[in-house]
Write a structure and sequence with these properties.
It contains eight helices and eleven strands. It has 258 residues and is an alpha/beta fold. The structure holds S-adenosylmethionine (SAM).
């Protein structure tokens, strides 16, 4: 009992100081994040003489969705260039989809050619991103609307997209679905994003991922993936998950709830 309370307290404190980098005016991690955002914006401006930067900004101005910032966009772009995935799943469509499609266009026809699927549960956001997406990139990405469903993984509750296509995903960007069934409504249980686990379970090759600032999911995945494959990057407010295979997954009973 006492250790449970202490554990919760330690989680809250580390969330506040380390993951949320608060209080902002005192916390050196927050200062590093500000510098990193500026540096990332500068680096994106340098891609193809500002072409990617222009496409991101144009889409951002028209987008109703809350989402990533320049630090995230640069992290996504530079990770794709480093990892060279062949089949990507983006969980949570939005302005970040421009970065994925831009990368796919840049490697089309080369040995690094890649397929991008972007999935979103909310029909409004799904239709919005299609409506404002740059025409010149639309053939480099496939947008899909899929319902958000829940399951239990051992003692933890997860959420994921129903009926994803049966493709050989080797890279996932985790920025959706929403952690609660109704966004921000605390009467619904908070769930971790389980698409990564579901895909690794069915995969016969290693799968990597970038996890946006979703600390609840970070903690759940750390408990459900053995070894040291998850690295949280505090100045980038993202985690990189490196080459996980079925053998790395902790065995738990899975109970579908929807
Ligand atoms: C945070 S958005 C990010 C989209 C995209 N990856 C980006 O950064 O451009 C992803 C998740 O949040 C939800 N969402 C997007 N905009 C929202 C908003 N304004 N209010 C509530 N939920 C939102 C979406 O349905 C999706 O589950």
């Amino acid at each position: 009992m006492a250790s449970g309370i202490l554990g919760k307290g330690a989680n809250r404190l580390s969330s506040f100081l380390y993951y949320q980098a608060k209080p902002g005016f005192l916390n050196p991690i927050n200062f590093m994040r500000v510098l990193n955002r500026r540096r990332s914006e500068k680096l994106i401006r340098q891609v193809d003489g500002g072409k990617l930067y222009g496409l991101i900004n144009k889409t951002m101005e028209a987008s109703p969705s809350t989402g990533c910032d320049y630090s995230d966009y640069w992290m996504i772009y530079s990770t794709l260039v480093r990892v060279r995935p062949k089949c990507v799943l983006e969980c949570g469509s939005g302005v970040s989809s421009v970065v994925f499609a831009y990368y796919a266009a840049s490697v089309a026809g080369s040995e690094h050619e890649t397929q991008i699927i972007s999935v979103e549960e909310n029909l409004h956001y799904h239709e919005s991103i299609i409506a404002i997406f740059p025409d010149e990139l639309s053939s480099n990405i496939t947008f899909m609307q899929r319902d958000r469903v829940e399951a239990r993984y051992g003692t933890q509750q997860g959420c994921y997209y129903r009926d994803l296509p049966d493709l050989k995903f080797d890279f996932i960007f985790i920025d959706g679905p929403t952690d609660r069934r109704v966004w921000s409504d605390k009467s619904f249980p908070k769930c971790f994003n389980a698409d990564f686990l579901n895909i690794v379970r069915k995969s016969d090759h290693p799968v990597s991922a970038l996890l946006d600032q979703r600390i609840f999911t970070l903690r759940a995945l750390r408990s459900l993936i053995s070894g040291d494959r998850i690295t949280y990057l505090p100045t980038r407010a993202m985690a990189f998950i490196s080459g996980v295979t079925r053998r790395d997954l902790v065995e738990v009973e899975i109970l579908e709830l929807d």
